[in-house]
Design goal:
There is one protein chain. The protein is α+β, with helices and mostly antiparallel strands. The protein has two helices and six strands. The chain starts with 5 loop residues before the first strand and ends with a strand.
Amino acid sequence: EVGGDYISLDLDKMRLLLNKHIDRELKREGLTREVTRIIQEMRKELGLVESDKIEVNILEELDIDVDYVRKRTNTVKFETGKKTFAGKEKLFNIGEEEITVIVKKV
């Protein structure tokens, strides 16, 4: 019997142990990808095409890979922590966190 942070899966002649613990880096990666998805969704709602450049403002401080988000969303300006410009604004829930994202075309 395996417990704690691990679950056990029996596959034919082997047993696979999976660690259920989500460390800081894994959480950061998941949050980064979710923020990227949200921004892409907002770009679509704005009718933007892939080549359109945008500015992004997230009102909360988040532990994410900003360079990853910028590259995948064609963002030329990315700010966090306070509202710095007006644009399409939406509130999202990611896990237990609530974030406000503002996007505008440049």
